[in-house]
Predict the 3D structure of the following.
Amino acid sequence: MPTALEAERRLILGEALRGQGYFGRAGAAYRAAIRRAGPEDRDFSFDAWLGLARCARSLGATDEARRALARARKIPGADRGMLALEDALVLRAESRHRPALKALLPMLAAARRRRDMSAVGFLLWAVAGSRRFSGDLSGAHRDFKDSLAAFRRARDAEGEAYALFGLGGIARVRGLFLEARRAYVEAGKRLGSGPDLFGRAYARCGLANCLRQMGRLAEAEKSYHKAYKLYAGLDDRVDLAFVDWGLGQIHQRRGELPQAERRYRAALGAFSGGGEDRGLVLARKSLAEVLHARGRTAEAERLFDSAVALARRAGLTAHLEAYT
């Protein structure tokens, strides 16, 4: 096969794998495309570096994402708008929500002016997530609803599913469990048994969170295990850690403290890989509660204090969410 065609094949493979949520495997395909691209294959190289950045960001490897974006930026004719958007999403992935919002809001205004409803839906989704983790819960709720409406106007079914995930999450942390459950169930139905394994796992995990908060612990546990199986197949350590944390919450609610501690320590280990301050805050705080209940008060206080300090440094309010 000619080198140029092989580079294109690897790029297409990377895009297909990324669309399913196989971010690690997609990254390997993008790297192979980059190695095989010739000096004349500028479009292939740009798309491959950008795809690699997106995969790294999705896995919480934000330093790697920034390095890939720097390489993409050097390619003549690089799409500056796409790079600016990805820069903002990396900020968001690093929990730097205030600078992320500063970058995203002008992009949203521009998308509204040109009436690109898919772009409006996506940018509202991104803005809403940063509002949520900055503590503007009512603003986030409004923006997720508007994101869903924009995706519906654009007839963007995949976008609708992800807007529903956001809507489920914000309703859940505000204690609106019936609204949250409807959103997760609808998103899961839209994805069905389709190729987006990451989305299907997200739907399972979100529904499990909601069922747990409603006190339906056995159902929640089953849904967490289904999410865990999907995330494990994707080699998604960060989202596996959120499932471990959720299962820890179930054990803690049941008074099964040794099991809860094991789950929280597993989550903490994965979150400590970097790029997920919110997960670190939640895991430290929850583990501190269990350690305190087990009589290890001094260790618990140190861990709790470090969770609150990190949340304040990062501008997060997750440590205050009773219904997270």
